[in-house]
Amino acid sequence: MEVEAAKVLGAGLAVMGVFGAGIGIGNVFSSSISSIARNPSAKKEIFNMTIIGAALTEAIAIFAIVVAFVILTK
Q: Where are the transmembrane segments (predicted)?
């Protein structure tokens, strides 16, 4: 296998983490909506934790993209 083909394959595999992050963000907001529907008075606390959870999940996607770019540039 050529080196360039291996780089592209490795970058493609590294970007697979973005799919997991998308699913994770969907789960975070789905749970948030369910929680607020059950207890509307706790909306502020739930929303704050939802934003933190979404940010942490999105960080995984950013790390995956950075790893893919690093693989392609070396």
A: 6-29, 50-72
CA–CA distance, 6 with 12 (Å, rounded to integer): 10
pTM over 0.70: yes
| Sign of the four-CA dihedral 15, 19, 24, 29 | positive
Per-residue tokens: 42: 């706790």
- Per-residue burial over 6-39, b if 16 or more Cβ lie within 10 Å, else e, is eeeebbeebbebbeebeebbeebeeebeebbeee
Class for domain 3-73, per CATH? mainly alpha
